[in-house]
Amino acid sequence: MSGPAVLAPAGSVDGRAAFLDEDAGRPRDGLAMQDAPRSVAVFRALQLGDWLCATPALAALRAAWPGARIDVAGLPSTRELMRRLAGQGLVDDFIEFPGIPEFPEQPARGAAALRAFLATMRGRDYDLALQMHGSGGQSNPIVAGFGARRWAGFVPSARLAQPGRLMAWPDRLPEPRRYLALLRFLGLPARDEALRLPLGPGDHEQAALLAERHGLDPARTVLLHPGARLPSRRWPAGRFAALARALAADGWQTALTGSGDERAITAEVAAAGPPGLVDLTGQTTLGVLGALLARVRLLVCNDTGVSHVAAAVRTPSVVVASGSDAARWAPLDGRLHRVLALPIPCRPCAHPVCPIGHPCALGVTVAQARAQADALLAAGGPGVAAREGAGLAAPRRRPAGRLAGAPAHPAGMPASRRRAAR
Fold it and tell me: What domains are defined for the chain?
């Protein structure tokens, strides 16, 4: 078996038809993009990292239609990101999607919750609904159920495509470029690929205090994030610990990050790691994690949401991609981000736990990860001053939506990588 590759830059639905009004799945007219909509609903019921990959498209929507109300329907776990995007004027409101059994990102709340959600969306009387969730096999009936005057998005095959409205799913494009391609298909200018994670002075102050409290010098610090939502996406904890020992022996400070739910994983790394390894598990909100990442020298992680946080703030990273569709999810800037992915026929993996011994993870050695880390550390990478504007949306074009004043919520980083035709 060869070693890991380092990626370069790079109708009715299973019982739900009864919940949709008879006419809801039929667009009332064709999509005339020359008529700027007054209100837009964007549907994307995915996790934090997935949504970060779609923020370039969201920014392009706002630039194209500065006067429109743009609402997002998605998972509760992304509310904090939406609040931050609202503060930049990109989003006006956020509506929680209750889930369906076919979407694994959260437990479905049942038929009554889905009916109530669709009634809420229909009551908002949108001019346009955009399906930015996936290929559309499961998600298009949901978006059609919003009752918008027009709806658009992806469809699973070219046979179902309609010019200027329904685009065949571009299976080979990296995730951020898929949704920019959709907007261009709809006739909108959409070229800026920068991910957006707005950070404020309070985030930077709290990150500085956290580093000081633990004796970390960000200019000498490497963060390691060993968690991921699915075990099949995790590089072994023992290898994270061995890499931390090697980095510490070279004089780097090392620290662990993770959500509170990942304490068992980080504790395993900490127990086998070097003396002085700092455990920050559960101590970082989304904003503090972003601000801390913006200051440190390097992140080492699995292919999960935190890798997209690093991409948004332009911090170099080494990403071990176990099981995931690495070409789809790899950060676009191959100079800053090195993705180690072992070519294997069963990738992308649909199993929460690998049934064949996890060869894609075990095939990436500590020495290989260390070589990529050493190369990035030797190259330096942008300092804090150079990255000061990284992750921020374009200047606000309209008053921030009501989400902007909502209280902050801590956010965990893991992101699902089980992506069927949806």
Answer: 7-194 (3.40.50.2000), 201-379 (3.40.50.2000)
